[in-house]
Amino acid sequence: MHQGPDVLRPAVLLRPAVVLSRGLLGLSLVIALALAAAPVARAEPDPAALTVGTIAAQRRAIDKPLDFVGRIEAPARVEVRARVVGFLDAVLFREGEVVREGTPLYRIEPDLFEAAVKQAEGALERSRAAETLAAIQLQRAQDLLDRNSGTVVARDQARAALDQARGAVTGDDANVRTARINLGYTKIAAPISGRIGRTSVTKGNVVGPDSGVLTTIVSQDPMYVTFPVSQREFLRMRQGGPQPDRSRIAVRIRFQDGSTYDQVGRINFVDISVDRTTDTVPVRASLPNPASALRDGQLVQVALQTGAPEEKVVVPQGALIADQGGVYVFVVEDGRAVVRRVSVASGGSGGDAVIEAGLSGGERVIVDGLQRVRPGIPVLSVPAGQVTGQVTGRT
Asked: Which residue numbers in the chain have pLDDT < 50?
């Protein structure tokens, strides 16, 4: 009777243990799953990358030029002035246009000068008539003397009268020529071909030799560029080896906006003496100017290409950024924008900048989207010109 309870008691005691072990196993599984999921819950997403346009830094053969500051000069420059006094009757040109040699520019009222020509011509006719009469009288005096009916004194007086008449003819003939020249000066024409400036007088004003410059004409094609070369540059060129033929030195100029003139010039003059105030030698080159892009007095940068081309790294000018520390560019390295300090050579190659130091070639240089680039930020590189401005996540 006692075995029943004794036998049943272990079974009753085992049930709580089984339940407890199963509970512990479930709790451990939950804790393990929670621990495994915890890092995933705390992980932060990758920051968004800024899309930028890049271009590879290229190595290119560059002619290393010598740079100077020069000024454009017209080979011919004429100040137009009035040679006779009179009222200005007409201005016959448009200011700033190109005129040909002989083109009428001004006209002075010719009436008084035409009258002066007539008056001089009348005096010349009288002198010629007097010369004819004096010649006849000399012949008569000589005939009388030959027949012993005249005197030597009468013949000599007739000869003197003829000489005086001839002198009067010569003087009056010169007066006629002078009057005609003055009449021609009433028509002021262009003495050379070139571009004409503005007029300083208008119709109705009295002009003359004392009126000053009426207008100015400068020739257009070719044009000169004159620039000073220091003694240091001359010595450097001599130390660099054999002297180059100056007719083979290419002369290129750049305008104030950085653009390069499309025509190549050649040196045609080196001054024979040194300017004592600046210790420089004036040098002049001639450049074609078919499109009249060069203007007299224009300030330009002059580049002389004298040596053999050197291989240099070039990048677009738009990639350069300047600050107090100098000039730098952004390059893409390992998906991030990195600052590279560079040394830029003077001059350039077309629209590119020549890099002396800081880049070795092949770097992906950022040229588009620079406004939003900061050192170290993630960037996504695409070819230049394909940036749309949106932010793209990194992949």
From this structure: 1-27, 29-46, 390-395
Phi, psi values for residue 37, rounded to 5°: -85, -15
- pTM score > 0.85 for this model? no
Give phi and psi for 179, each to the nearest 5. Answer: -65, -40
Angle at 37 between CA 31 and CA 42, to 5 degrees: 125
Token pair, residue 328, equals 């730098």
Q: Which top CATH class is 50-62+311-393?
A: mainly beta
121-135 as b/e: b if 16+ CB within 10 A: eebbeebbebbeebe
CA 323 – CA 167 distance, rounded (Å) = 86
Kindly state which CATH superfamily the domain 65-75+219-308 is placed in. Efflux pump adaptor protein, beta barrel domain (2.40.30.170)
**Residue in this structure with the two tokens 């109705």, named with its chain if needed:** 204
pLDDT tens-digit series, residues 195-240: 999 999 999 899 999 989 999 999 998 999 999 888 777 776 666 5
- Quote the crossing angle between the two packed helices 111-146 and 152-184, to the nearest 10°: 160
CA 320 to chain centre: 23
**CATH class held by domain 78-217:** mainly beta
